[in-house]
Design a protein that fits this description.
Blueprint lengths: L1 H13 L12 E7 L5 E2 L4 E10 L2 E2 L3 E9 L5 E7 L3 E7 L4 E11 L2 E11 L14 H12 L7 E4 L8 E9 L6 E9 L5 E6 L12 H4 L4 E5 L10 H9 L17 H19 L2 E11 L1 H12 L5 E5 L30 H7 L4 H5 L7 E5 L9 H10 L4 E3 L11 H16 L2
Helix pairs in contact: 5-6
Amino acid sequence: MKKNILFTLLAALLVLPLRAQVIGSQIVVTVEPDHKDWNYRVGETAAFVVEVRKSGTLLDNVIVDYEAGPEMYADTKKTVTLKDGTMKWRGTMKQPGFYRLKVVAHVGEKTYEGMCTAAFSPEKLQPTTVMPADFTAYWKQAIEQARWTTLEPTKRLLPERCTKDVNVYEVSFQNTRWNSRTYGILSVPVKPGRYPALLRVPGAGVRPYSGDVWTASKGIITLEIGIHGIPVTMEQRVYDDLQNGALHDYWHYGADDRDMSYYKRVVLGCIRAVDYIEQFTDWNGTDLGVTGSSQGGFLSLVTAGLDQRVTCYGVVHGAMCDHTASLRGVACGWPHYFYWNKGKGVERQIETSRYYDGVNFARLITKRQQGWFSFGYNDDVVPPTTAYATYNIIQGPKTLSPYPMTKHFWYQEQWDEWEQWLISQLTHQ
């Protein structure tokens, strides 16, 4: 009996993974503010405590580089040795904004980073971008012209992605001209009926998509679209080749002409996606959401601002907002068009950028559309300065749920809150 038990245990050990997962690091750099919510009033002083720990204990005689000041415009940069692994720092701002202390520790041949970004009266931030006089008219005409092209949709069942409650399809429809198509993944409840709908718009990059089966299982039609006019179910290597080839840095394409901008087709594709939902799904005709993160946050503002069929929208660390802020020495939105050249010699690009600035689309959002915003104070891709300034100009009902410690990523709690908010808005539960 004992031999049998021993044999069983040895057999079980043999089928266990031979290598444990790699998670985290034993070197951790923390930067902690003295206000738990990371928020201060203009003129107050934020006190930071820096600690460099190895295996949970302070690391002696560690060399660190640190920079401090308004985000993207640090005014102090130094290298010091922390004898006991700790450092204190104090910072303030005389105008609304975000003050960042970034610390990089050098241990052996590796570096470890910690960061804290304190907010100073962020509710008073305002964007810098100017709304062109013909902004609304320009986009109204562009949408009308795009609709001269009929959708001519295609729909292909993806059996391997279906569940007992949800059918999943790859769909496509024409966008701005004949055979210029938008592709996406449509997930619909199996049970017959009329349902609320959710449009998911993508972050930057080139990739395949899986669709939002989980939300569809809650009784919501979901359509997740790509923006590049290519099928969204190909092998990963195809997207990698495009990302590194024809679509490399596509956000710069046509930046000096509003009609030639890469994003014109993208913006119109979002509106055509809503057209598709209205005409070719069992949408209930009353409840329609749009959501996305980063570039998708921008596209959520676009869709809500241009289309009154949208009743709710979720924006997570929304990119492409307040492009011209850097012309005034203030943190600007991704992709930071004028941060390096300070606007010199790119006057046409500056004018064009105003037609593709999330701030100007946000100005069109009405009081009948519910909004949910979330972002991280430590985000060094989409500055919280731009995210907060955009939030501040929204005239309609809105909810703000920042997660200060996050950079350009999500916490699970943030994701869960986002999902639950969308479901509650669309199902009224």
